[in-house]
Specification:
The chain has a domain of 133 residues: Tetracycline Repressor, domain 2, CATH 1.10.357.10. It is 75% helix and 0% strand. It is built from ten helices and no strands. The chain is elongated. Pfam families: TetR_C_6, TetR_N. Keywords: DNA-binding, Repressor, Transcription, Transcription regulation.
């Protein structure tokens, strides 16, 4: 079986460039910044170039949401694959500590507010939440936690992750890295129990 991905076409590369630009505009100023005009200005091209690859703004927004989710999933999987950390430390790397993680969380927050009124984005949001819980649960099972216990702990940990991260986006001075790690470690350690929390993975 050939696992080598086929080369991307020029159109695929251009679409990816537009989406990457849209993701940056989103972080800088919110969903309102994602317009064909702003994208063309940032990319130094005409709006015709953008409209050649995307039917409308809604399509750009949806693809940008999927791009942000995929980027975050890759970071999540990398953190949970680090076998040099304890279970708690591996999971806490999902917090908005690095610039890249803060950008992802900021992008999500913009999308989540829009998802309240957009069924398509709401469906993407639900999938993202589900996948995060399931990935953490799979990780916990991989280090020896039983099935039901792993599922319950994963849900509790995900709840804490989202709650703490959103607070940190709004008050970065209060929620510095030390506080982020401290509060999340306390919640995660409680959900895992002392033996599992200290386990080296």
């Amino acid at each position: 079986m050939n696992d080598i991905a086929p080369p991307q076409s020029a159109a695929d590369l251009r679409r990816a460039e537009v989406i990457a630009c849209a993701a940056q505009l989103l972080v800088e100023g919110g969903l309102g910044e994602i317009t064909f005009r702003n994208l063309a200005r940032r990319m130094d091209c005409s709006t015709t170039v953008i409209s050649h690859h995307f039917r409308n703004k809604d399509e750009v927004v949806l693809e940008t949401y999927r791009h942000v989710n995929a980027r975050a999933a890759a970071m999540r999987d990398a953190a949970l694959s680090n076998r040099a950390h304890t279970a708690v430390r591996a999971i806490e790397e999902l917090l908005p500590i690095s610039t890249a993680q803060r950008d992802n969380w900021a992008a999500w927050l913009h999308f989540w507010s829009a998802a309240l009124h957009d069924p398509v984005l709401a469906a993407e949001h639900a999938v993202g939440l589900y996948q995060t819980v399931e990935r953490v649960a799979a990780y916990l099972r991989s280090i020896g936690m039983e099935g039901d216990a792993a599922q319950g702990a994963a849900q509790a940990i995900s709840n804490a992750l989202y709650g703490i991260a959103i607070q940190a986006l709004f008050d970065r001075e209060h929620w510095d890295e030390a506080r982020l790690r401290q509060e999340f470690r306390r919640t995660t350690a409680y959900a895992l129990g002392p033996d599992m929390a200290a386990r080296q993975v």
